[in-house]
Amino acid sequence: MYSRKHLLTALLLTFMTASIFSQDTDSAFNLTCIVYDEAYIPIGVTHVINMNTHEGEVSDSLGIFSLEVHMSDTLFFRNIAYMQTSIPVAAVAEDRYVILKRIIYPLQEAKVFPWGSSYEDFSEAVINTPAPQTLGEALGLPRQDPDYIPFDMDVATLKSAGFLLTSPVSFFYYNMSKREKRRRELFWYEKNRELHERFDAIITPENLSNITGLSGDPLLAFMNYMFKRMVCDYRCNELKIYSEIYAHWEVFKQLNPEISTH
Questions:
Q1: Quick one: DSSP state of residue 72?
Q2: Does residue 217 form part of some domain?
Q3: How far apart are CA 152 and CA 180, in angstroms?
Q4: What is the pLDDT of residue 261?
Q5: How much is the pLDDT for 152?
Q6: 79 Rama sector, left if φ>0, alpha if ψ -120 to 50, beta otherwise
Q7: Which pLDDT belongs to residue 142?
């Protein structure tokens, strides 16, 4: 009888330990995630359902949703324009984003002949039709605004109080996420690539040497002096950039009369 009590006690302790360990390794947590398409454009109004708990959420206008999950759960994503997808929570918990593939609906073949029924009509129509300037015009697509800035790249909007009030989850995600900050840096660098390259070409050691006549350590000293005080950046025009360089050079010569040019 004594040994039977010890056996039951040992089994009970083993069960309790396993239960506690199971809770610790698969406890509930709040998953914040963003839904993208294959071009990394946020997808709003996407229904996200936890297949284990049957709880659901809908992504906001920037593709972000928050849902309580367990690491062992599976999420089901549904959007009318994209393929329905089931993904384990463990697969998205680290990156915190999901990519959905767009549905391509097949269309029946259609033939349209606006030029008539004969080859002569076709030839005349082609000769008299002016060549389109771009592929977009040929397809009848609207022209893209060169000054257009995507919402998730507009720093002023993302930091605004209005955005905080209307989409608080998205506000904190876009302003706290290192990944999103890096994406904005790359976007703005690419958008202003030509200006960056022009500015970088002006402030090269070779060009500054041609302006000042310096080389070696004196040139490095001047560059260090100038870069600490320079106000102009890639957004300035060439005249302002060169004017500031010459102004710094004049002051540098007065402060360092011992430096000679070649």
A1: T
A2: yes
A3: 8
A4: 59
A5: 81
A6: beta
A7: 56
